[in-house]
Amino acid sequence: xxxxxxxxxxxxAEATVGERSASTPNALxxxxxxxxxxxxxxxxxxxxxxxSPVPLIPQLGAHLVAAGGKRLRPLLTLAAAHLCxxxxxxxxxxxxxxxACVEFIHTATLLHDDVVDESTLRRGLxxxxxxxxxxxxxxxxxxxxxxxxxxxxxDGSLRVMEILSSASATIAEGxxxxxxxxxxxxxxxEKYLEVIHGKTAALFAAACRVGAVVxxxxxxxxxxxxxFGTNLGMAFQLVDDALDYAADQQVLGKTVGDDMRExxxxxxxxxxxxxxxxxxxxxxxxxxxxxxxxxxxxxxxLDLIAKTDSINITLARAKRYAEDAVAALSVFPDTPxxxxxxxxxxxxxxxxx
Length: 353
Description:
By secondary structure, this protein is mostly helical. The chain contains 18 helices and two strands.
């Protein structure tokens, strides 16, 4: 996966990426602006494909659209196609349909995840399951998966279907593996990284790789974009896991401390547990493994994480992945979209500040 296995080795990339991050305050907005026409076409496709004669489906779909979101994954598909020289036109809109497909896969997994995690907030608003109930969220998630596969079929490429269907299976495996490691502080860091590769990085990788496929680029460029997406996805999830213990709730878009309440094993917790004294380890065992928590436990957890520098350890590892993502783009010529993708990698790991 490109990053060193030790907690301390990951710190070496912090300064380099941190310096670049300061110069890319909102690279994601810049990427979206560059791809404005394609993204608007993608959003139209998403809205159109959410229509159904069953009223609850478009109602829940409208709730999801209203919640907004970065649309990072479809942006990556569109950007990858541009990077590979795909000449879009009235009859060449494959990248738009596949970007919508990627977003449907992502949104379907979010609907299912919020039910499994019993989440009440998503992107700062009430989650779909909190508004419409668990049954509706699961079934509409199934509907969105079906729409995604319709879009794959409409594209007509077996290669595209292989990439995106494989990613869908890997996402499910990642979620099941996360459930299997839940509440287990003996989980090795390598197993945690396997979880986030499955649940997050696999779709980032697929979203990027299909951009090269529609442009009919050679395998080397497909693999380069897959590597870029994988490493970007790993960095993105590591930062998300850090944010759960470091962000303002309004910024985070979900309840701070949800991961702890759910007993999720993430790098900030593993780092804090491994560095803790006997008393600290007993605390983590009680709140994570035994699930016995009080209102005073989250502030104490945040204090222990701060004392063990666990957020910076997590961010340093994320920054190593960002460096690897940028390195993967070296096979492509220096173009505006390549620069925007590089800036996006650095911006991704700077969201915590």
